[in-house]
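Hi L.,

You mentioned the student needs an example of a multi-chain input paired with its predicted structure. This one should do, with 335 residues in total across all chains.
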Amino acid sequence: MKDQLLELEKRAGDELNAIDDPSGLEPFRIKYLGKKGALTSMMKSLGTLSREERPEAGKLANQIKVNLSRRFEETKISLETGGSGDDASVDVTLPGREPLCGHLHPITTVIKEVCLIFSRMGFRVVKGPNVELDYYNFEALNLPKDHPARDMQDTFYISDNVVLRTHTSPVQVRVMETQTPPVSVIAPGKVYRRDSDVSHTPMFHQVEGLLVDRDVSFGELKGTLTSFIHQMFGSHTRLRFRPSFFPFTEPSAEVDIECVICGGEGCRTCSQTGWLEILGSGMVDPEVYGFVDYDSDLYSGFAFGIGIERIAMLKYGIDDIQLFFKNDMRFLNQF
Ligand code: PHE
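Structure written out for the whole complex:
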């Protein structure tokens, strides 16, 4: 019986290999695997065997049936999909379909680039919460309760003492609270203001910078920011420091770069001035050191806040800030 089964397996296998057209499949199935097929009838005759022979022969017969059925299905699939024939219904020489691959958002790219430039200058990247205490967003930055910059128009209030941060400057205070000088950090992230037009969105991005040590001068602030701008926009880019005011820096300066759209000639983007403002900065006001227990006789430092969307608009020549957040693929796929 065992020999007969093995012989049957070999014969069926050879016949299956020889089938080269789907029309040969069904006759084969009937002949071997069908209800009256050779294998089936052999299995029926197992009952005539002695008790000793039966288990082994039964096991073998079952194994052969499983193997043969599997090979039959494989042959069927291969013949029907043209896997082995010349008249293939699938052209395996066609190039495959490329999977759709995403890419970074232009704002993410600019944040990464800004962080890379400052990391190389020795600044450490830190993060702070977007939902911030009034204390860190305003109070400890020398913005007392009645200061006009705290106007309800600009700030999203969660409750009396909790806001969506309006700038990344609160991270300065959080860092100084937990670390003694020397300190040199940058803090990228989202900020929120109640404002929306071609140059404002209610959420945008800043990168904050802070450096505190002994004997830090305004010259180092100028040198650091000049180097940053030259690396970001090219070493030919002209810039100017314009006196300004922030409650948490003294003296304060805003930095303008020569309009990259018109090259300083004067155009719509720069309101005919030839200059574009890209960041706020200044020497940390001694008042702020009072909130974080730094000795202002011993230490001095500078801080700056860079508007990321502003940088991205100039870098890529985009004149509407809203485009960054509309998720229009025709816009995003250009980067
Ligand atoms: N936080 C200021 C703003 O959002 C920018 C700034 C940061 C100015 C640090 C001075 C120092 O406008």
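You could point out the following to them. Residues 2-89 form one domain. The mean pLDDT is 91.

Best wishes,
N.
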